[in-house]
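agent> fetching stored inputs for the adenosine-3'-5'-diphosphate docking request
agent> found them:
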Amino acid sequence: MMGVESQLETWPAELIKRATLVEVEGVSLTNDVAENWDALWAFKARPDDLLISTYPKAGTTWIQEIVDMIQHGGDSQKCARAPIYSRIPFIDLFPPPPIPKGLDEAEAMPSPRTIKTHLPVQLVPPSFWVQNCKMIYVARNAKDNAVSYFHFHRMNQGMPEPGTWDQFLENFLTGQVAWGSWLDHVCGWWEAKDRHPILYLFYEDMKEDLSREIQKVAQFLGIQLPDPVLKQIVQHTAFESMKTNPMANYSTLPAFIMDQDVSPFMRKGIVGDWKQHFTVAQSERLDDIFAQKLQSNGLTFRSQLGMQC
Ligand code: A3P
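agent> prediction call returned; pasting tokens
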């Protein structure tokens, strides 16, 4: 995969087209995922696979880097072996060549594999459940998640057109965005964690105490972290470190795929940035739409550190 970056430079930028949305089993997915649905559904998980799942922009790259560091004993050099998207293949990504399909990369990878998905729980390929694979899910409060997703649509030229912030937010609230409804996603995985080996984490908890959350991940993976290793992982996965790490910040992709001048991949990395985007009416509308189901699921999010909503 390291060679692909140099190929990309000679690649015609027009090949990257903004995706459209297609429903699969009632969930909005990008057209490329829908077109490859049968192959994705038939994916063969192995018993020692670790699946990282998130709603897009909930902190996927952050937990990927943490997991890779834990698996490599806190050795930053080993984690610089390739960009994060090559170290941990994303099975629901079907880009045009020469970028390899996540499925193909995963299939070619020796065990034990760590794999990324954004699929809602009911669309996860059945072999992951049959093999009883461990899974880590990261959830982020809806308001910051929506803002981050909006800016990601602006900069990622393969995502659907976001329109204005107001238009995007309406689509987000009704689940008319890629990988579907945030609410169904976070609730579906929350319910599944009682039946399967799923570690359910929150972005806000990671911001609050990264060391504590890294230890939870290590414990879940059955890996002991001596204190100096833990400290090294905390330092390596802090926002400022990841922002300047070319193997984590997607700067290895050309601007015609991700235009970091429009919005950097590592944008703000905070809890509460939504206040710069939401009107009071928008914030209340989101609360109205999401509160009841969250409450009935016993699921609580913090949209600001130091308070719950
Ligand atoms: P913002 O756009 O709010 O800054 P994903 O990896 O799922 O695409 O999520 C990207 C979001 O996670 C971005 O949020 C990004 O800045 C944030 N992020 C990535 N690494 C982080 C870190 N080490 N600490 C805090 N936030 C991080």
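agent> quick read of the result: The radius of gyration is 18 Å.
agent> awaiting further instructions
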